[in-house]
Amino acid sequence: MDLGPSENDSIVTEFVLLGLTEAPALQPILFIIFLLAYVATVGGNVSILAAILAEPKLHTPMYFFLGNLSLLDVGSISVTVPAMLRHLMSNNKSISYSACLSQLFCFHLLAGADCFLLTAMAYDRYLAICQPLTYSTRMSWGIQQALVGMSCVFSFTNALTQTVALSTLKCCGPHVINHFYCDLPQLFQVSCSSTQLNELLLFIAAAFMGVAPLVLITVSYAHVAAAVLRIRSAEGRKKAFSTCGSHLTVVGIFYGTGVFSYMRLGSVEASEKDKGIGILNTVISPILNPLIYSLRNPDVQGALRRVFTGRRPSE
């Protein structure tokens, strides 16, 4: 891929996204399924955000991070699904070069922020359970804002680096991407330039934004588990494990799909499995997060009921 003209290479202006299926009979069905999934995801996450804003009891660091996670989920599904819906209902499967790079940038910006935000949530649970006496000072409003701000800055830097590095590659042959959105593994496959530098940058990003946060989350929850097991009250242990269990479930889904998405960079042929993993990463994970955090959380459930019924929260 090349941003400017060259004597021997034509300028890339667009790609063709093959999408989930080329069978015309399946496309209207998939359109309805993913439209409903998109509406449910946006509605669920916006409801969680509204409940957090409306309920004073939820004005705590944990729910501040959860509200930001809901915003990221709305953003991540909005980056991929609306374009996929348009392609499902149109014979034109093309996406412009600039739109492809914009989609890539936004996807990595939001996914990177997700990594750091999940780490901040684990740190919050560690402080709340293992260091309760200093929790209010070590997780002050200023520190909460700083953690979210740093997540955005680090994620923005990585997304910009990956996008600029990708734009230096040259693309030859058919500009066809066997996927439903633009991402690095699929774009590497249509490049006729060496992708060694790009893969190195992706490896460094994976270590800094994937492995390091996962290690911190694991260490945090190891301390949390040890502290919870020392709680004598069965009810106290149940409540602590319930809160942490929701977060660990989200972490497992997020990192599990991310690992499978990028572990097959050396594959020459794009597999249908990549599309399935892409759906898990961009659709299933955002739609499950509101359910995971609300199903076993009476505070969130109560706040959601008050939002939908219009009742004032109890002081």
TrEMBL record:
Protein's name according to its UniProt entry: Olfactory receptor
Entry's localization field: Cell membrane
Occurrences of domain G-protein coupled receptors family 1 profile (ranges): 44-293
Keyword Transcription regulation listed: no
Highest taxon of source: Eukaryota
Gene: LOC123776961
SUPFAM superfamilies per UniProt: Family A G protein-coupled receptor-like (SSF81321)
Entry's Gene Ontology cellular component terms: plasma membrane
Name of a matching Pfam family: 7tm_4
Entry keyword set: Cell membrane, G-protein coupled receptor, Glycoprotein, Membrane, Olfaction, Receptor, Sensory transduction, Transducer, Transmembrane, Transmembrane helix
Stated role: Putative odorant or sperm cell receptor.
Topology in membrane: Multi-pass membrane protein
Species, as recorded: Ursus americanus
Gene Ontology MF annotations: G protein-coupled receptor activity; olfactory receptor activity
Membrane-spanning intervals of the chain: 29-53, 65-89, 95-120, 141-160, 200-229
Predominant localisation class: membrane
Family affiliation: Belongs to the G-protein coupled receptor 1 family.
Stored PROSITE patterns: G_PROTEIN_RECEP_F1_1, G_PROTEIN_RECEP_F1_2
